[in-house]
Every structure is written in C-alpha cells, then in structure tokens.
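Team,

Forwarding the record for the chain on the shared tracking sheet. I've put the sequence and predicted structure together so nobody has to dig through attachments.
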Amino acid sequence: MFVFNNKSYISTQPISRENWYQHTKWLNALLVLIIPLAAFAIIYYFVPSITPHCSYKAGFHLRVYLAAVVTGAVEGSIYRWSRKYRAHHRCTGTVKDTHSFQKSFLYSHLVWMIMKQGPKCTGRTDISDLNEDPVLMRHHIHYLKCLVVMAILFPIMVCVASFDALLFNREPFALIQLRIGLMTSLSTIADCLAAHVVTALITLGKGYHNFHHEFPSNYHNAFDWYQHDPSKWMIWVWRPCLQSQAFGANKIEKGPVQMSQKQLDIAGFKTEWDLPLEQLSVIDWGDCSALHASLPHLGVIGENCL
C-alpha cells in the first residue's frame, strides 16, 4: 500500500528562472550533453591538431586517453584519420582533396565516405612521424578490438549503471561542409580568414575554420579568447600537459587587413574613376601658343596654362 504525503514535487511546478535548475536531471545532462560535447571537441579539434598539424605535443598518458575517447566516435583509427586530414589540408580546393568540392556538392558531403578512393586520386603527405608513434600504431592495429570496448561495451555499462537515457553518436563530417559552404566560396577557402558566428555555434567552433587553414600549426581555431572555440579552451585547461605552438599576433592580424583590402579592391573595381594622371593629354608650349591665339584670355603661369 502506497501512502502519499502532501509534499509538492518540482515536476508539478511551472518552470521559471528561479527553479529551472531544480527541474533538470543533472546526471543525464552531464552524460547526454556535456560529456558528448566535450568528446566531440576532443575528436574534432584537439586530436587533429596533435597528429596532423603538430600544433602541440601531449604526454603519453594524455595521448592514450585521447585515443580511447576517439575510438568511441567510430570514425576510424587516428592514423588513418590523420593521414587523410593532412591530405585535405595540403590539397584544399583541388581534386586531390579527400572530399573535394570540385567533384560535386554531393561527393564532398556524402559520397567520399561511402565510396572507395584510389591512392593516386588523393594527395600524398609525409606521415613518417605517425609511423613512429607507438600509441597511434597500436591504436591502428588493434582498432576493432578498441572499437568494441569503447563504442559498444563501455556506453552500455555507463547507461545500465548510472542513468536511464540513451547515448547517440554524432556525425561531424556534414559540419565540415556546412562551415565551408557558409563561410567562403571554393576559391577562397585556403587563403582567407573569414569568420561566421552562426556557423561557429552550430559546428562547435568551426565558423572560424579558415583561420585554422591559414595557420594549421597554431593551436587556436579562433584567435580571440571570446570567439567560440572549444579546442582553445580545452588546451588552456590542459596547458601543463602540453607543448603548444602559436603564430605571432602581428602575423595573424595581417589576415583581417588583407581581407579588408580585398573587399576594398572589389569595391574599387566596380567604381568609375577619372583618367589617371599618366593617361591625361600633355600640352606643350606650342599647344599653349596656339590656344592663346584662339583664346586671348588664356594665361600661362610657370608650367601651367590657365
């Protein structure tokens, strides 16, 4: 027999600014929202900057932890991912890009993931450092075993042991194309520093991805501290464990100036200007004498005709 008391449960009360946190299942929010977002940032920003670009160096234990988290995303081994990511950066905007826009919009979004790519059709890069990394090579060799543990068994154990919600895997590749399509045209992907705030919010920081293409070995994905960039903030938290690299501020500040100059040049091309000085007709002394004969009021002061 159940006995109900007169206690007022929070679920029966309307949600307001004062009590919204009491309505929230914080354990579920942590496991469903915060942890996946943190893992997404690790997979999508942090690990690529360590392996393909060498923006910073992590210790052995941190590399093992990152490899375990990446495995749960089911996106292939870090070795394979890094090799293709380097080719993408080296050949951006060309047919050698692993997901090139020049091969069609559909190819760059989906087809490149489900169709085989010939080794001669993608760009070649130096991966000698990847071959010498023991963590990456063991992760690559034993990837299927790690996949079963981190992508299947571990999530099930967490769900059964701690909360009553489902974990969903997220697909980031469409976000890569979203930020490229919204920020720039194909011809300017690799040579500009365009920023798109809305895209940054949707793609967890990729709205500033062209900065990353312009300065690939810089650990920032967005330069200013207030710009949405999870990787930059995570690196700040883990800075005692890392040896990070960054470009000088003066070098980076040249980018927005160059972009402003490009926009100014485009506006200048659309404007009708007077003839430049070198294209104006030259009047010598003989011409002035002839003009003076026909125009008695014409006077000459120094080298100028008035």
